[in-house]
Amino acid sequence: MQTPIRQRVASIVQKPEVKRLLTAQEIIDREDRFGGRHFKLLPVVLTRGQGVFLWDVEGKKYLDFLAGFVAVSQGHCHPRLVKTMRDQAEKLTHTSRAYYTEPLGALSEYLTNLFGWDRFIPMNTGVEAGDTALKLARRWAYRTKKIPSNRASILFAKGNFWGRSLAAVSSSTDPNCCTDFGPFMPLFDTVPYDDLKALESKFKADPNICAFMMEPIQGEAGVIVPTEGYLRGVGELCTKYNILWIADEVQTGLGRTGDRLAIDHEKQRPDILILGKALSGGMYPVSGVLADEQIVFGLETGSRGSTFAGNPIGAAVALEAVKILAEEKLAENAKNLGKILRVELEKLPKDIAREIRGRGLLAGVLVNKEIADGWDVCLRLRDAGLLSRPAHGQIIRISPPLTITEDQLREGIHILTSTVLSY
């Protein structure tokens, strides 16, 4: 005769619990119930990705025209990245920067040789890399330029976006980013983007400016491409006034605009380069800063660090991700398909699509608000099998994985233009 305990054990063995799969709405409701409300999510629950495609929990397939805010340039679950992560995870995942590991040195050597700066400082996220660039600039200001202590100021382009830390929002001109987060970082100032006269006026007025930080193409501001010659002019003015030029290429770098870097369009070399997002193909948070020794060596032991920055998994994945970009010629693909994209989008009526912006496969369609709401357009695109999000309400982002083929791009363009014309 079985004891009560044995009866209960037998019952459990005989009748295993079957876990019920949640519906899409249940998943949405749970996140809304227990998470924050600081991000407006498109109502779709994704469960799988491969290449340029995503699938939701109900099995519906979508073309991805956002690419994880351009982090997934190499395509979802690229087999080389999956293998690299798996192989490294089976050997060594994390040690902190207290010790040397092989992958970080390999990544640093590859990046410095590829881009032509002396040193690479790894971080995790774009905002951390931006903050690192500012610390480098201020150390240089006091120790090389000899600006009086605590007087070094930093200039930013209006419309900038490099994250949402307190330092980042201190430089922001977007009310959504900075309202009710003060007091702000002192000695941060802004200047109109794509305005060399205004920039030189600022440089002349304040001898304590140590750096100018800007995006070669402003992404979050609405895919704002500066006029030809602006980047060259920025470089010349920074050299003239002995001010460090910090180029934020977290979004625009690594092939996205049709060149290896967006600054390559005008053959420029800033003093400090910030990379992120596609640096790891969306597989792991990896960012970093490239600069020459006279700037990098301003940070000595203890002045900068991060627990996870440069860890073996991140470094191994980033190295493979950058190799994929080069070996699969994804910058060239972005340049060629970007031309097709622009030609096709320019066919949209101007009373509906007010403006087509962008370069390469970083583009945006400014939709006439009197005709259609940008969020509603993205909902209709979702229903038609394409995923994107609006920037600043009315600009439909177009930034698919750089592995996209011409046929896939044309399919996405057809969905986009048909949806816009349906209004």
UniProtKB/TrEMBL annotation:
> Which Gene3D superfamilies does the record match to this protein?
Aspartate Aminotransferase, domain 1 (3.90.1150.10), Type I PLP-dependent aspartate aminotransferase-like (Major domain) (3.40.640.10)
Give me the gene this protein comes from: LOC107227219
The entry's family comment says: Belongs to the class-III pyridoxal-phosphate-dependent aminotransferase family.
Q: Which UniProt keywords apply?
A: Aminotransferase, Pyridoxal phosphate, Transferase
What EC identifiers does the entry list? 2.6.1.13
Name the NCBIfam families for this protein: Orn_aminotrans
**Protein name in UniProt:** Ornithine aminotransferase
The protein's matches in InterPro entries, at most eight in alphabetical order, are given as: Aminotrans_3, Aminotrans_3_PPA_site, Class-III_PLP-dep_AT, Orn_aminotrans, PyrdxlP-dep_Trfase, PyrdxlP-dep_Trfase_major, PyrdxlP-dep_Trfase_small
Q: What class of enzyme is it?
A: transferase
* Catalysed conversion reaction: a 2-oxocarboxylate + L-ornithine = L-glutamate 5-semialdehyde + an L-alpha-amino acid
Its UniProt pathway annotation is: Amino-acid biosynthesis; L-proline biosynthesis; L-glutamate 5-semialdehyde from L-ornithine: step 1/1
* Pfam families, per database record: Aminotran_3
Q: Which cofactor does it need?
A: pyridoxal 5'-phosphate
Source organism, top-level taxon: Eukaryota
Annotated source species: Neodiprion lecontei
